[in-house]
Amino acid sequence: MRLHDDRGQAVTELALILPLVLVLVFGVVELATAINAAMTISAATREGARVAGALVNGGGALGCGLGQSPNAATVDSFVVAAVERVLTGSGAQISLVDVSAIRIYKATVSGSETAGSVNQWTYLSDGGPVIAGERLDFVEQTDDWPACGRNNVSPADSAGITVHYTYRGRTPLRYFIPGLASLNMTDSTVMPLNASK
Predict the structure, then answer these.
(1) CA-to-CA distance for 83 and 173, rounded, in angstroms?
(2) Is the confidence at residue 34, as pLDDT, over 80?
(3) Residue 119 in contact with residue 104, Cβ under 8 Å?
(4) Residue 54 needs a FRET pair 20 to 30 A away by CA distance; which of 11, 24, 138, 175 works?
(5) Is residue 20 in a domain?
(6) What's the pLDDT tens digit per position in 54-88?
(7) Secondary structure (DSSP) of 24-60
(8) Residue 48: domain span
(9) pTM to 2 decimals?
């Protein structure tokens, strides 16, 4: 009587199933990492908008004259610092090099950018202003919406914060699936400036 040897069949089945299992595992890891990045960016824009709403125009009387809005020059720096703090915080897997822009803008009623009222900050390692003893990794490129010109009197302006980020695939799937090597992500949050009565 001959005994059947099933080892060859097991090896064949493993050779067929293993690639599918690897694709599934890598896919789950890639999806979870991308969702984590999207949630981090969303949290960063919310924190930036909250700070922008709280700091408004730097305090004091509205305007850019002597004695008006005395802290206006640092408002956007504090907003960007809040965004950067979330992007680099515990558990965050965001590479600041891949953040192409942080935009602070006057929002329309629909939440979009008001033309000509956008301040853009871009990445430059340790190139920004010093906030709370630490140098920011972002520098201001445009200042088309000065803080001293923001209105917190009813009806108050609304500030929007947008982060543009390029997600880069982290598993070997990025070599086989077009578009996974880099994926553009953008998130925006709009909040009204705290109105004074």
Answers:
(1) 30
(2) yes
(3) yes
(4) 138
(5) yes
(6) 999 998 888 889 889 999 999 999 999 999 999 99
(7) HHHHHHHHHHHHHHHHHHHHHHHHHHHHHHHHTTSSS
(8) 7-192
(9) 0.88
